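>> received
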Amino acid sequence: MKSKFDKYWGSFETMNQILVIANFLDPRWKLQYQKKAFARVGIRAATIEKITRDLKNILLRMYDEYRGCEAGLSQSNHSDGVVAMEGVEFDDLEDGQAEILADLM
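>> returned
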């Protein structure tokens, strides 16, 4: 089974990390699940920690990119820290960044 895993996913050092991010963003899974899944496949603890650290950095960069795009919207779309998009309101994520970071760790 490991050989098939390696055949389709490759080594963790060269694997496309967007696959891990997609799994992480699935509401049923979290970063702790990723760590357990990597360990179950037989990945060394040091490699798992590196992958986890890289994943956190990628997610933080994605968040910063999103925040930069959100800041570029016209003022007419802003109202007390809430952005309306086609009738759906999203709270200003900057205020909850500490909570997001806590969930990632």
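>> The mean pLDDT is 69.
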